[in-house]
Amino acid sequence: MGELKEDLCLDCGLPAALESMGERWSFLILRAAFNGLHHFEEFQSTLGIARNILANRLGRLVDHGILAREPMPDDRRKIEYRLTEKGAALLPAMLALRQWGEVWETGMPSTPVLVDTRDEQPIRKVSILSHDGRELQLGDMCWKHTHEIKPLEMPRLQAVA
Amino acid sequence: MGELKEDLCLDCGLPAALESMGERWSFLILRAAFNGLHHFEEFQSTLGIARNILANRLGRLVDHGILAREPMPDDRRKIEYRLTEKGAALLPAMLALRQWGEVWETGMPSTPVLVDTRDEQPIRKVSILSHDGRELQLGDMCWKHTHEIKPLEMPRLQAVA
DNA sequence: TGAGTAGGTAGTGATTCGCAACTTAAAAAA
DNA sequence: TTTTTTAAGTTGCGAATCACTACCTACTCA
Question: How far is the CA of A73 from the C1' of C27 (A)?
Fold first, then answer.
């Protein structure tokens, strides 16, 4: 991929994120991992991905610290790929994309669905919230440079001391 | 791209979403659109993308209804690409991915940042919330099939009638 | 009418992709 | 112990996609 102009490359997490997740299969492999798959052959037969591409993508995800690669102690041929903390942190992005696909492409809810273990109720739609918890649409927001942002005035209760 | 096995292909919005957004440049073009860019040359000079690839991606995003293509009335050479409702709905996914990149790749906040127009405070981190608003981590959730989910018992106030 | 500009196409070589066949090392079976 | 099976890759090859440069075509403006 060509290089971005500096001001769009250095200061935004998106190109950085795409460095590891910008390839088509990466998301699907990761989704399978979130669904509890751990082994090469599981990914391969479930996704129908070519073996060399799968090997390449798993390697890349491991290189980026998104998956951890570990031979199983009881059968050292078996390699377990499991999500790292960094990989697990991609869940909101994955879900947001999946939910978008449900609403705007397939028109139906996906299965299976993530539920809160506590009460088995489905999670909310991923959305954008203001600092005080209101849901925001694109029209409710604008772009500011970091230095333009004023710290929030807190109710000064324990302040002065 | 090869075809997925049916049970992973038909019932999930993610592969559907990747059909339009699975290519590397798509996210970056869309980010530029969210940042207020509207014209071919703006995208080209800002992103440094090859012209034919840009033309191809813009066309594809238009085909998928994510961008709308409209010649400007005052100068009909000029074409305006603007986000459709469907395109704007990708913002949570884009932000989630960008925030992930900030935390796990660049290690610094991106600029510019989205703020609530009302109070100019930055938005919250995109996260996963339970139906009643608690923030959930991966360990707090599990997968269920749709038919296994029981409707939530509501406090029966106006129920019986 | 001629110059400039916005938005694209065309040609070309490098890279990536998907498929099938092969490899390697460990485990299980005989 | 030898043979077979299995998990996880690697290799080779043709097809598709990519990026780079140059060219093209409307339309506008002087």
Answer: 13
Whole-Å CA distances, A56 to A26, A39, A59, B3, B8: 10, 14, 5, 18, 21
**Domain-located, residue B96:** no
CB pairs < 8 Å spanning A and B: 307
- Residues A83, A95, single domain; the answer is no
Q: How many CA atoms lie within 13 A of A29 on its CB side?
A: 31
Pick the last residue of a domain from A62, A89, A116: A89
pLDDT, tens digit, for every residue of A38-61? 999 999 999 989 999 999 999 999
Bridge partners (DSSP) listed for residue B122 = B115
For chain A, positions 54-113, list CB contacts with chain B under 8 A.
65, 83, 86, 88-106, 108-113
- Domain residue limits at A28: 1-89
**Separation between Cα atoms, residue B117 and residue A150, nearest integer Å:** 13
Give A29→chain B minimum CA distance, Å.
Answer: 11
pLDDT (tens digit, 9 = 90+) per residue, B40-79? 999 999 998 899 999 999 999 999 999 999 999 999 899 9
Strand C contacted by B2 CB (< 7 A): yes
A101 and A158 belong to one structural domain: yes
